[in-house]
Write a structure and sequence with these properties.
InterPro entries: Carboh/pur_kinase_PfkB_CS (IPR002173), PfkB_dom (IPR011611), Ribokinase-like (IPR029056). Helices cover 37% and strands 25% of the residues. The protein contains 11 helices and 14 strands. The strands form 2 sheets. It has a 9-stranded mixed beta sheet, with helices on both faces. Strands 2, 3, 4, 7 and 8 form a 5-stranded mixed beta sheet that branches. Strand 2 and strand 3 form a beta hairpin. It is globular and about 70 Å long. The chain binds adenosine monophosphate. The site of adenosine monophosphate has 16 residues, from strand 2 and helix 8.
Length: 308
């Protein structure tokens, strides 16, 4: 089992979808990544920051999943990062209504001593300088560094983003972000251009249309499970990333072949995340449920064809 460091937001989210609306609920990239990765019981630590307004029960939820939370700083007099978004009827596109950095504005991440030799570092969606800062603190070079980011950082910190992209092995972004980053419409061309920026592996998430994994000339495609009800897509991308790194942490095999399985696990876990608002579905997800859905995935994609 490889040690896993996760850095990202631990947050309050307020979400509006065509099905309803929530007030401030638990959210954040690192929260979703951690909950998803916990399916593989990795030796994982979350590095983040929250304010004094953050309920202890949310921290307990993460520790009860055996995630080390000693790297989550609590600023008593500060407020927790807040994000609010509204989904369109297609549930694939959304508008960000508010991004309040609060304590995140002055976040100086500290990697706990016993995680400075972690084999895997998952750089969740955050300011690219903070992501770089975490990598700088590692005492041994991680075997695998995975980066997730979003258009917000492309708009506000593009140079810093390019600097961190150079240093990672895998990048996980969605289709629109890949297009924005490369100014290319074709995802195949975009993936090639991103590989030239540094990451040897490029994962492009396409929401309800699944995910693509690129490495050199190889491409792997995993569909998303056709779900009857998508309630709230928030955190699906992070849940995907959590499943991806969680599986790699468990297996310790970072080959392209094994990454295909990691993509399947990521897609499977993301398919649960969207079934309820916020983190609700991920909080009590059983390994049996995951197993059953993996079988469905297999049925969805397997076929026998005679090639003459
Ligand atoms: P996703 O739906 O996978 O893109 O992730 C949604 C999560 O990302 C929410 O729980 C938010 O709290 C968090 N988030 C939104 N905007 C940002 C941002 N600019 N930086 C870091 N995290 C963010």
């Amino acid at each position: 089992m490889s040690k896993l460091v996760i850095v990202g937001t631990v947050a309050f989210d307020a979400i509006e979808t065509p099905f309803g609306k929530t007030d401030k609920i638990l959210g954040g990239a690192a929260t979703y990544i951690g909950l998803s990765a916990s399916q593989f019981s990795p030796d994982a630590s979350i590095i983040s920051i929250v304010g004094g307004d953050f309920p202890q029960k949310h921290l307990d939820l993460l520790s009860n999943k055996n995630i080390d939370i000693s790297g989550i700083q609590i600023v008593k007099e500060g407020k927790t990062f807040f994000w609010s978004g509204r989904y369109h009827n297609d549930m694939n596109s959304r508008d960000t209504l508010a991004t309040e950095l609060n304590t995140l504005a002055d976040f100086n991440p500290v990697v706990p001593k016993n995680y400075k030799n972690a084999e895997i570092v998952m750089l969740g969606n955050l300011h690219p300088i903070v992501q770089s800062n975490v990598l700088d603190q590692m005492e041994t070079k991680p075997k695998l560094v995975v980066l997730d980011t979003m258009n917000f950082w492309m708009d506000t910190a593009l140079n810093d983003l390019h600097n961190i992209i150079k240093r990672v092995d895998v990048i996980s972004i969605n289709d629109e972000e890949a297009r924005q980053l490369t100014e290319e419409y074709s995802l195949a061309v975009a993936a090639r251009k991103i590989q030239a920026m540094g990451p040897k592996y490029v994962v492009i998430k396409k929401g309800e249309h699944g995910a693509l994994l690129f490495h050199n000339e190889n491409v792997f495609y995993a569909p998303a499970l056709p779900l009857e009800e998508v309630f709230d897509p928030t955190g699906a991308g992070d849940t995907f990333a959590g499943g991806f790194v969680g599986y790699l942490a468990k297996t310790g095999d970072f080959s392209f072949e094994n990454m295909k399985n990691a993509v399947i696990y990521g897609s499977t876990l993301a398919s649960f995340c969207v079934e309820k608002f916020g983190t609700e579905r991920m909080e009590n997800l059983s390994s049996n449920e995951v197993h059953k859905r993996l079988l469905k995935f297999k049925q969805l994609t397997q076929f026998e064809i005679e090639l003459t």
